[in-house]
Write a structure and sequence with these properties.
alpha/beta, Lyase, Ornithine Decarboxylase, Chain A, domain 1, TIM Barrel, 2 domains, 29% helix, binds pyridoxal-5'-phosphate
């Protein structure tokens, strides 16, 4: 079920009308639904009931502390990709034995922080990183539990900017070399190899790429074990797609995904880690924005809103489709006409949709950009000196501002004039 529905003609998040939140916090703002977060997490976790599995929510999808904590209360761990995210995960109360750290460019400083925190696993993506980590672990007198991230060289058939498992991508160790590197890791001081990790991309809409990658993992595990090496864990990454409303094809469900995992890898006697991000939070959030002007161009109608690409970059960056609906329910049978919904930023790419059939709109109306819970607020910037917008978490009939709106003065306060000016 979807927790963003019209109630008495007013689009609501659970039992709170978005127009009431807009009145309170101004626009634009992100609103998240606790019930949706919990339901999506539970769905995913339940799908893997039959396996020894830990679900480490991928913090980069939506890194708000209250969002993380909501999931932690349901049993989530965290997948982090920077020292900043590690700090967030710890601040949100994620148990250290459920934190994994991925990423191609972890600095010495970040690796040391991860070791000192005592997290469950560091997913190492190169031999260079392995050597650095070994040196740092020895310095600290600690042991690093390491999974080697393998690049399985499969095409995830998703947007080029979020494909991560092809040979040409920067991620992971070539699968043909993983065997050799794993052997080397076993002999490095301060390193304890515990298994393999893989993450082939995001917004995957089919099972075949997962299957292809996991078959390679299976072969690798067999090879390593044949050499007498220990493989206790497999980290299978994230990447499961969500419906954004632009495709008639249904998205694969966590249950279908779990079937593939069980079929290909279920008998290996390993424990599993999953790193879902988008599938947990994507449809748990909307970005609410207000129409500033409706401008009749020579050839098109532009609906200019107060949100922009700096608040939600997905359409500009990935040509992503987002469903956009009026917050006040249109009258039944209301005429629609095509319009482009655009933000005020000085870039043509600042376009949320083109030629979308929309009910009549006028300045002051509110719109909700749906499926904005993942890679929305977490990718926002202050381009055009537009302060970050608030994030609001709804829970039943209650809501709380879980990140306040920044003010322009907050931004200016970060800057200093040099002596010579
Ligand atoms: C981004 C990322 C994820 C999460 O991907 P989703 O598509 O949001 O599920 C998981 N693991 C790693 C290593 C990532 O970089």
């Amino acid at each position: 079920m979807d927790h963003f529905q019209y109630q008495n003609g007013r689009l609501s998040a659970e039992d709170v009308a978005l127009a009431d939140i807009a009145e309170d916090v101004g626009t634009p703002f992100y609103a998240y639904s606790t019930a949706t977060l919990e339901r999506h997490f539970q769905n995913f976790a339940d799908a893997f009931d039959g396996l020894d599995a830990t679900v480490c929510y991928s913090v980069k999808a939506n890194s708000n502390l209250a969002v993380i904590r909501t999931l932690v209360n349901r049993g989530a761990g965290a997948d982090v990709v920077s020292g900043g995210e590690l700090k967030r995960a710890l601040a949100a109360g994620v148990p250290v034995d459920k934190i994994v750290f991925s990423g191609v460019g972890k600095t010495d400083h970040e690796l040391a922080d991860a070791l000192r925190a005592g997290i469950a696993q560091i997913n190492v993506e190169s031999e260079e990183e392995l050597e650095s980590l070994s040196a740092i672990a020895q310095d600290l007198g600690l042991e690093a539990k390491v999974a080697l991230r393998v690049n399985p060289d499969v095409d995830a058939n998703t947007h080029a900017k979020i494909t991560t498992g092809k040979g040409e991508n920067k991620f992971g160790i070539e699968w043909t070399r993983a065997h050799e590197v794993y052997g080397k890791a076993t002999n490095l001081p301060g390193i304890r190899p515990v298994g393999l990790a893989v993450h082939i991309g995001s917004q995957l809409s089919e099972m075949q790429p997962f299957r292809d990658a996991y078959v390679r993992m299976r072969d690798l595990v067999a090879m390593l074990r044949a050499d007498g090496l220990t493989v206790e864990r497999l980290d299978l990454g994230g990447g499961l797609g969500i419906p954004y409303g632009d495709s008639a094809e249904p998205m694969p469900t966590p249950a279908e995904y779990a079937d593939v995992v069980t079929e290909v890898l279920g008998d290996l006697g390993v424990s599993f880690t999953f790193e879902p991000g988008r599938v947990i939070v994507g449809n748990a959030g909307v970005l609410v924005t207000r129409v500033v002007y409706v401008k009749e161009g020579a050839t098109r109608r532009f609906v200019i809103v107060d949100a922009a690409m700096n608040d939600l970059v997905r359409p500009a960056m990935y040509d992503a489709f987002h469903e956009i609906v009026p917050v006040a329910e249109p009258a039944e049978g209301a005429q629609t006409s095509p319009a482009d919904i655009v933000g005020p930023v000085c870039e043509t790419g600042d376009t949320f949709c083109k030629d979308r059939a929309l009910a009549p709109l006028q300045a002051g109306d509110l719109l909700a950009i749906r499926s904005a819970g993942a890679y929305g607020a977490s990718m926002a910037s202050t381009y055009n000196t537009r302060p970050l917008v608030p994030e609001v978490l709804v829970n039943g009939g209650e809501y709380a501002v879980v990140r306040r709106r920044l003010e322009v003065d907050d931004l200016l306060d970060l800057e200093r004039q040099p002596d010579w000016l």
